[in-house]
Every structure is written in structure tokens, then in C-alpha cells.
Amino acid sequence: MRGKFSNAGERILAAIRKFLALIVMVGPTGFWLVLFVFVPLVFVVVISFMQRGDYGVEAGFSLQGYLSVFSALYGKTIGKSLLLALETTALCLLFGYPFAYCMTKAPKKMVSFLVLLIMMPFWVNSVIRIYAWRTLINDNGYLNMLLEALGLNTIHLMRTNGAILLGMVYELLPFAVLPLYNSLEKIDPSLLEAASDLGAKRHRPFLRVVLPLTMPGVFASTIQTFIPCLGLYYICNMMGGGTDLYIGQVIERQFLSEAHNWPFGSALSIILIVLTIVMMKQYTRIGSLEDMA
Amino acid sequence: MDQPIIRLTGVCKSYGDNEVVKDLNLEIMPGEFLTILGPSGCGKTTTLRMIAGFEEVTKGQVFLAGVDVADKKPYERDVNTVFQNYALFPHMNVFKNVAFGLVEQRIPKAEIKERVQAALKLVRLEGMDNRMPSQMSGGQKQRVAIARALVLKPKVLLLDEPLGALDLKLRKQMQHELKHLQQELGITFVYVTHDQEEALTMSDRIAVMNAGVMEQLGAPEQIYNHPATRFVADFIGESNIMEAYVDSITESGIKCVMEFGDFTIRRGDYADEEMLYICVRPENLRFTAEPVAGFNLFGKIKEHIFMGSICKTIVKLPNDQEVFRTAPPSDGLLPMDSVVHLSWRPTECSILRTKEEQIYNVIESSVEMEGFDARQIL
Ligand SMILES: Nc1ncnc2c1ncn2[C@@H]1O[C@H](COP(=O)(O)OP(=O)(O)OP(=O)(O)O)[C@@H](O)[C@H]1O
Ligand SMILES: [Mg+2]
Questions:
Q1: B286, B343 Cβ separation under 8 angstroms
Q2: Does residue B54's CB lie within 6 angstroms of at least one atom of ligand 1?
Q3: 3-state secondary structure of B209
Q4: Which of A153, A156, A151, A159 is nearest to A139 (CA)?
Q5: Alpha-carbon torsion (A106, A109, A112, A115), positive or negative
Q6: Closest atom of ligand 1 relative to the B15 alpha carbon
Q7: I need a labelling partner for B348 at 20 to 30 A (CA). Which of A161, B17, B119, B201 fits?
Q8: Per-domain residue ranges for chain A?
Q9: From the list B73, B90, B148, which residue is nearest A196 (CB)?
Q10: Which ligand number lies closest to the CA of residue B58?
Q11: Could you tell me the residue range of the domain that residue B246 belongs to?
Q12: Do residues B33 and B189 touch, judged by C-beta distance below 8 A?
């Protein structure tokens, strides 16, 4: 009888101990996650169902935020923003992949220097760097001065969608290069020798061995450029014309400037988050399918 | 016989100042099983890589089927490699791995399927088509690597320590299977290993390498029984190596002296006072209670080590050098610390000489003295 009793007691004690250990281990992380991710998200969700007011939001339930999103106007905004993200991602991969590939071929000493080059922009505030770009591509900026000096036609880039694309690619390229470099560097060189030994010529070893093996890196790069691109509103603000808005800018304007429509801004954010999650899910599913093949 | 399928003439390889393969001359015949044997870092892999075309030769020439392949890329050489680490493509299943080379040759799908199945059958991996390399054991991966190379029907297969990662039992089994495959298909195998037993059991000929130099090339029996250099004697099997000086040359033989004894060897082209290495295999060393004619060598029994089918007896010579004998345990063990006289049959020792750093074996020149008995010398 006594044995059974103490057994149960021991079991409860063990369970408590286990629970305490769990709290100690994941506690801090969990705490920060709740504080900085979960709570703000709940705020956004709650606000998205409230009424619009003079200072942005007022108590009371309303679906107006969501209904405004589905007006035709914003469908175009979302489409346009996704297109920009797509273009940015494609260009980042296009420039980033060869760059990362060259890095793996460079001598070891050179590599740390190249990584330093990639990381260096992070030491300066992004807004300042984008501002620097403006002075470069202004209609009478350094780029056009150079073109003129060379006797070529000047180009009008500032305050166009092209300038926004340029800013995005510039800002996000490092985030594309690093995962690509990581996955390229992991490839065992003997796999390329094996491919060559088995008769693969010229571009074939790259096509059949390197590219498939770096797909995880390509996926990581895509996610690291596509998602931030939807949110980097200040690049659109600083480089764009300011008339034809992107989704990040629309959301920003609901909170920070003229519009003062918090429920609408929140609803737009939620829809953007859901859309992104759905697309990424779909994307990684294609990815894992390709891995199997 | 036809011309050698692989011929290396004066091949050297240096990385910077580091010369890792030195003046290698080697001819390999079609259908031969040639093993390159040597300790870690002696240049075995480098040699294979030069034949396969992954590494350029610094000096010398490589001929494949009589053609100098200096400017031929790996995919232009009619050899295939089984890599030390298998190098299977991790993103492809077994079927796609094995089909890789056939796809590159643009062979019709149906034929690819047929040939891959046949290759998998050959290495006994039927039905494993859809496995990924990460889901396979070391032995299975190794067989995939072999199938992937064999399916292309190369004239030569280069194998770099293909059994290195396997346990003893699986390794023995694979040795047998590989040898069988090689004989069945009539492919030339160039096989790299640092396992001397593997080399002795599988090879037609063995090239023993040490520090970039090929020290001896010959059939397994020849290498084992008549090592050409001190290194070979030490590396292949176990040897008792004793240093002795030529003391006097007489009608009947040559008297050699050590610090503490002497013995007589057959006549040979030795100079007075020349230093010789006498190597005796442990199974050929004999212990007797009474001195044997021609030998004045003795030691004290120090230890018996039981090793299963044989027993190793260690004897300490007066100069503290230890020599040992192996014999079946049933032969009866002499008591510890008893004094024994050492001897061996003259045909069962190898005499190595040092001369301008070159050491060579002279036993072969005196093989006609077979049946010679040490007792007749005195
Ligand atoms: N790329 C290289 N650069 C410089 N030195 C090298 C290079 N590859 C090999 N070496 C050197 O050449 C020597 C021979 O190497 P190799 O790989 O041929 O040895 P191995 O006989 O195959 O040894 P193991 O049995 O350990 O595989 C080694 O001393 C090694 O350090
Ligand atoms: Mg090696």
C-alpha cells in the first residue's frame, strides 16, 4: 500500500520536475516569442475587426477593414506588390547565384574578404544607403554625369518603378547570396569528379548535380528576398513616384500618415500574412516534390 | 600477350615542393587485377587520380591502350572510378545514380532500364532501385558505386579503397564478390588499398608504394616470400629483421656476425664488412634446444601470446632485440626464460643489402640452391 502511494507521489514529482525543466529551457525563448510576436499579432487581428475612428481606431466591431480590402482598387495593389517581389527575387537569384558560385571557387583567403564585402552594407543604416542611391541615380546625379561624360544618353530612373526595383535588389541581394553560398559550399567536390568520370561534359555536371543540390539554398534565398520585399515600404517611398502605391506603403499610410485607418491597415496586414504563408507553403511543397524526383 | 592497357612512364607528381609520386613506371595488362598497396599518404590516391584524369602529371606520361592521354579530360578516358567515399549523388535514387553515365551517352530509355537492372543484379541489389543513398548501408552504397561504374562497360576500373569503411566480415565477403566480378567480366582492376591481407588475397600483381616510390612490383607470393626492400619486408606480413655484417667469405658460405652471435648464409655477391639485413618470417624461424650447424644465435623465451589458431613466442636476444616465431599452439610451448637456439632454412630468409640507398634482394639469384641444408656448410 505504502509502496503504491509513494510511487504515485514520485510520479507527480517527476512530472513537476520535467515541467520545470521545460520552462527553464524554453521559457526565455517562449517569453520573448509571446511578447514580441504573438501579442502584437493579436493586437493586429483585434484592431482589424474594430471601427475606424479619429485617432485611427475606435471601440466596436466592424468588418469594414476587410471589406475595403476587397474593393477592386487594392486587388491591383496586391498584384503589383507581388510582381515587384517576384522580380526582385528573380534578379537577386540571377545575380546572387553566379556570385555565390564564384565565391566557392575563390581561394580561401579571398572568401572571407568577399563575405566581408557582402556584410559591410549592414554597418550603415539602410535608409542612409538608399538615400545615397538617390544621389547616384538622380536625373542630374552621378550616374547621368558619367553617361554624359561618355557622350551617351542620360536616363530617367529616379521616381520610377525601375528605381524601386533597383533599391530592392540592392537591399536584399546579400540575403540571397549567403544561403546560396552555404549550399554551394556544402557540395562534395568528388561528386563533380564522379559526374565527369561518368561522362558528363561542359555544363552537364552543373545541371545534373550542382543545381539540384543547391535547390534548398535557392528556396532559402527566395524566402529571404520575397517576404521582406513586400514590407520594405521606405524603399518604395524614397525611390518611387509616390502616386502608384505598393502594399507596404498603403499599410504604412493607414498608421503613420494621412489616412488614419487602423482597421483597414490591420486587415491588409493580415491578408498579406495569410497570402504569404499560403504561397510559401505551396512553394516549399513544390520544392520537396522536386527533391524527391 | 597484347599491349598493356595502362602504361605509366616516369610519372612524377608534385604539390609545390612536395613530391608525392616519384618516377613511377608501371605497365598493367588487360584483365589484370593490380593492387597498389602502401601506407597512408604514400601517393596511392594521387596515382589513381592521375590515371583517371582528375590530376595532371607533373612529369612523365600516362598511356591508356597505347594512347598518351595527357590532354584528355576524365570523360574522354575509357576508365571509371569507384571513389574512396563512394561519391554517390545524394539527390538521386539508386536507379538514377547507376543510370547517370548512360543518360549522358543519350542511350534510349528502354536500354538504360535494361542495363541498369543487369548491373544492379550483378552487385546483388535487385529491387533497390528507389532507395536513396542516405537510406543505405556502407556495403550497399559501395555496390551502387561499383554498379554505376560497371554499367558503362569500361575497359579499366579504378577502385580507391572501396572496402575501407566496412566491417571485417562484410569486407571479406565483398573481396570475394569483387574478385569474382572481375574475373567474370574480364575488366582490368586497379585497386588501391592499405590492407596487405586484402592485397595478397585478391591481386594478380601488387605494386608496393612507400613515400611516392614504387618499391616492388610482383605477384603476391613473390612479394611475400621475397621482399625486395626492408620496407616491403616490414610492411607485408611480419618479419624479423636482423642487422649483420659480412665477416668472412669461405668456400661453403658467408659468415655473418652480429654483436652477439653469427650465422652462415649462402654465397652471394657481397663485399667484406658489408651490412646486410636478414629477414626471417616468424613462421620460418626455428627454436631448438641444441645449436644448429652454421648458427650461433640464441635468446631467452620472454612471452607466449595465444592468438587463436597460432601462438606467438617472443624471444629476447642478448642485445635486447626481440624476435618472434608463430606456430600452432599444439606444437608445445617451451618454458619461459629457457635459452633457445635460433635457426632458419637458408631458402626461407631474405637477404637485403644497403648500397647507395638502394636495397635489393638477391635471394632469387640463389633459388637454384633449393634443398640446401645449413648443416652441410660446416
Ligand atoms: N591537393 C593536394 N595538395 C597538396 N598535397 C596533397 C594534395 N593531395 C594529396 N597531397 C599529399 O600527397 C600525399 C599523397 O596523398 P594520397 O592521397 O595520394 O595518399 P594515399 O596513399 O591515397 O593515402 P590514404 O591511404 O590515406 O588514402 C600526401 O602526403 C598528401 O598530403
Ligand atoms: Mg587515398
A1: yes
A2: no
A3: strand
A4: A156
A5: negative
A6: 4
A7: B201
A8: 2-48, 67-292
A9: B73
A10: 1
A11: 240-377
A12: yes
Q: How far is the CA of A111 from the centre of ligand 2 (A)?
A: 28
- Number of domains composing chain B: 2
Q: For each of chain B's 378 residues, which pLDDT tens digit applies?
A: 578 999 999 999 999 999 999 999 999 999 999 999 999 999 999 999 999 999 999 999 999 999 999 889 999 998 999 998 899 999 999 999 999 999 999 999 999 999 999 999 988 898 999 999 999 988 899 889 999 999 998 989 999 998 877 788 888 888 998 899 899 889 999 999 988 889 999 999 999 999 999 999 999 999 988 888 888 988 888 888 888 888 887 777 788 888 778 888 777 777 777 888 888 888 888 888 888 888 888 888 888 888 888 888 999 988 888 888 888 877 677 788 888 888 888 778 888 876 544 444 433 333 333 333 333 332
Predicted interface score ipTM higher than 0.85: no
pTM over 0.90: no
Inter-CA distances, B235 with A177, B37, B224, B228, B304, Å: 51, 10, 10, 11, 23
Residue B44 Cβ contacting ligand 1 at under 6 Å: yes
Atom of ligand 1 nearest to the CA of B43: 18
Q: How far apart are CA B140 and CA B128, in angstroms?
A: 10
Residues B82, B142 share a domain: yes
Q: Which residues of chain A does B148 touch, with a Cβ-Cβ cutoff of 8 Å? A: 198
Q: Which residue of B has its CA nearest to A188?
A: B87
**Looking at B173, B201, B232, which one is the last position of a domain?**
B232
Nearest CA-CA distance, residue A216 and chain B, Å:
11
Nearest CA-CA distance, residue A281 and chain B, Å: 22
